Amino acid sequence: MKNWKKAMMALFLGLIIFASTYAIAGTSTGGTSPKYTVENTVIVLPTTKIVNGTPLHIGEDAIAGSKLGAWLMYNSVNVKSEEKSITVTADAEYHSAIIRDNNQMFYLNNQVMPDVGIPLAQTPDDKHITIFVNFSRVDYNTTKNFYNFSDGAMGIVFTTNSSPIKLWDTTQPVIIKMNNNNTELYVFTKTKTDNYYSVGDVVNIDGLKIKIMDISTDSDRALVHIIPPEGTGSGFDDILSLNSVNIYYINSDGKFVESTDMSVDDLLREGVSKIYMFKATDIFTGLNSNMVRIYGEYYNKIEEYKDGQVYMGNWVWHIINESTFELKLHVDPDHHFPVVTLTQNSPVLKLPVEDLQLKAYFELDNQSHVVDHYLRFVRPITTEKTVNYTTQTVYYPEPKGTILTDVQFMGIKPTTKNVIIIGGWVSNKAWDWLTQVLGQDTINQWKQEVMTKGYIVKVVKQGDRNIVVLAGKDYTGTAQAVDYFINNILLQG
Hints:
The protein is α+β, with helices and mostly antiparallel strands. It has 3 domains: about 170 residues, no CATH class; about 160 residues; about 120 residues, Tick-borne Encephalitis virus Glycoprotein, domain 1 (Sandwich). It contains 7 helices and 30 strands. The strands form 7 sheets. Strands 5-6-9-22-21-20 form a 6-stranded antiparallel β-sheet, with no helix packed on it. Strands 10-11-19-18-16-17 form a 6-stranded antiparallel β-sheet. Strands 27-1-28-30-29 form a 5-stranded mixed β-sheet. A hairpin with a 2-residue loop joins strand 21 and strand 22. The longest helix has 25 residues. The chain is elongated, with a radius of gyration of 47 Å.
């Protein structure tokens, strides 16, 4: 009995796969819910094998029932179209024209490399930068076949307005000053204040507080108490005289001091971290008290660059003037700036802007001897494209519990699902349930039709479900009933 069940289940699953594959490949459900599916229908197979010594071909009935189950599965398959997208990336390279070493000063330009990605000119300005190779400082070793770059062989020159790199992290206007030796450059932000104050008021700028203690219109002076930023010193009294300048700053030791002999410009060129300048521009008697108008400037150093300061790798800063800079290829093996060579195994020199590279190419003959060599500028890029496409996804329910034996069916007697009974009253015990549900007269009439017509296909509506009987005088008649139901009722619904 167990082996028979396993064989029938294997056959049923095989037919399900066949029907599902057929549905996917050649038909469509049309978007409507099928009347009979594996979710809302049970098929009841016979189990009585012998009656009065006569064998009943219930195995053949089981085959017919499994075939019907497969078509129920076919009726249950739903194919849904879904719009999807995928982003595809691909690596590529832009190349300049071939560059040969003729001991010349070479300037990269947009004609030599249209896709360089940045505006170029032989002299930098507010819109263009300069990239050069000084081939008088580039040697090619003909014995070992490699390029050797000495100090200053390459440079990238730009202004503050055309800089290809971020020079400072602020959106405020900046002031740029060089030290007196032209070897260091300092970048400051500048904040201004200009207001009227009376006795007791406090001027507050970046942690510095100036409290107005007294205002004299006779002597055109204001007595103030200076409270330095936290951690930089103790408070003290000072005088703001009309149109005289008071300058304070944070020195290299982090202390707040008053400048007695250095101007703001001197301090900017010294590169101090913070500078405060105040002056009284008006002292007068107001409606209720004496007033002082105080104008102030605050300078905050946000960046500094030094000649020879490393930017990355062998690239160092060279300060040309307060608005023009160079990133210079620096080679000095004795001071931790290694030699720069381009070989067959390591042919790329990376520039610090726009992912640019200078790449050496070596052409070889059949014996792997170098017969030609040259340079190109290269810009690697990654392209990205989104592709939209339509997929079809097959949804199908789990067929568990769709096929029951008559013994199993009589044990649960489902009340909400469609019931399809395979086989006649002799082999299938579910006919006892049919008699209870439909009455003896109906059952007797159906039995008579089976005996006279060879098979019956009966569909009876019961509430929200159907009761279907597919029975034949023998297993061939039952098979005919199943085929009729599949072709004329199941597939037409």
